[in-house]
Amino acid sequence: MKKINVSICTGTTCYLMGGAHLLTFDEVLDPVTAEHVEISGAHCLGLCGSEAHGKAPFVKVDDHIIADATLMKVLDKVRDLMPEED
Ligand code: FES
Fold this sequence. Notes:
The protein is α+β, with helices and mostly antiparallel strands. The chain has helices at residues 12-16, 31-35, 71-81; strands at residues 4-9, 37-42, 59-61, 64-66.
């Protein structure tokens, strides 16, 4: 089963902009969703240096960049990418 990759930036800018609490993302997942998700911390994703990507903190969900990330925004994106139930 291919997992949805959630990469949480733990770089200084994102951390200072409120990213620290994003590391609790696993706590907001129900057991079924959690089975489909692989969570990792990442050093600076290289997105904070320009305005082009929006505001820190950043999280990548597969290839999707989430700017100004909150637990709810990340959860919404994960739910979008979840496979349909059989
Ligand atoms: S510190 Fe998060 S993208 Fe640079």
